[in-house]
Write a structure and sequence with these properties.
By secondary structure, the chain is an all-alpha fold.
Amino acid sequence: MLNEFLLLATAHLFAVASPGADFAVVLKNTLRSGQRVGTYTALGIGLGIFVHVGYTLLGVAIVLSQSPIIFDLVKYLGAGYLLWLAFQSFRSRPKAASTESEIVHIQLSKFKALKQGFLVNVLNPKVTVFFIALFTSIVSQKTPIWIQSFYGIWLAVYTFLWFSLVAWWFSRTTILAWYQRHGYIIDWLMGGVLVVIAVRLLI
């Protein structure tokens, strides 16, 4: 089971580290509203992992994968939510230049940040497919359910820690000061990234 866990953790490590919708929303919220908001977004993503693990252990993942209507519904909801976030990013406009001591964050509540992270993760059908593949190809049916639950807890906690690190890194003062001057460009770029991810989900 140690080998099973190491394979699971390694596959998940590479999946989390690769840029995607989760990374994009953490980066956007951190640059716009600071480290604390970015960390709450990361917490929302981690909680979303519990949802994927939960229905995978219950076998609901197989139902999702075999039901085109339900799967498409999740896909359209996820793509629509990403497009809404992109629309919010495209509304960003140039601001007056500021020094590092004049950084002003755009207000975003902790709950809203957590909700954004949670919904972006839960409504991403690529994550659903990933967890189906992960647990069916690596985890043995003979593995006790409590050990599989431990795997799920590890995946959720690691995801939260990784994106918290992303939030910490991109909340450095020099980065934020630069963002205050050129943030609208980054917002537009992140909006474009979210649109691309949404379109990829749809096709």
